[in-house]
Design brief:
single chain; 2 domains; 58% helix
């Protein structure tokens, strides 16, 4: 009896991609994705003339980033939102607190939202740009490099 639903689809994909000489490709992809290390990156912020802090963000998985941007749709009256593909101010606010440290200390969602409310526009843009670069730009650049490498390898045969 054939399985239905996602389990059946995954099993069918595994059967189609399996050969005597190669491992199950889908399993290899899943394992590689599980092992991928999430990058952490710092954004420096200043409040007034004398308060300086470092906000450390840890990259989140694609589904979690998708949730952040889904909660942050572009505003029709703000052209910059369409450059990002989302409302960057809202994305900074909605980023998961579990993936944020301020001066090395964890923050709660409530603390993060309150702090973001006090930040100047420059700090918010710096944070949004860094989040966009890690979650959108970098994966596209990595894929382009992999595609070019594969094409170069196949052209060299």
């Amino acid at each position: 009896m054939a399985q239905k639903g996602i389990a059946g689809v995954l099993d069918a994909l595994r059967e189609e991609t399996e050969t005597e000489s190669s491992p199950k490709r889908i399993d290899a992809l899943i394992e590689a994705a599980k092992k991928r290390v999430m990058e952490s990156f710092d954004v420096e912020i200043g409040i007034g003339d004398d308060i300086y802090s470092v906000v450390t963000f840890t990259e989140v998985r694609g589904v979690d980033w998708g949730n952040v941007t889904a909660l942050s749709p572009p505003r029709e009256s703000v052209p910059a939102d369409f450059q990002f593909g989302f409302n960057p101010d809202a994305a900074v606010e909605h980023y998961p607190a579990s993936a944020i440290r301020v001066d090395g200390e964890p923050v709660t969602s409530e603390q993060w939202k309150e702090l973001v409310g006090y930040l100047d526009a420059a700090a918010r843009v710096d944070m949004a740009s860094a989040l966009w670069a890690v979650h959108e730009l970098k994966p596209r650049q990595q894929l382009a490099a992999l595609v070019a490498k594969k094409k170069e390898a196949s052209d060299g045969k």
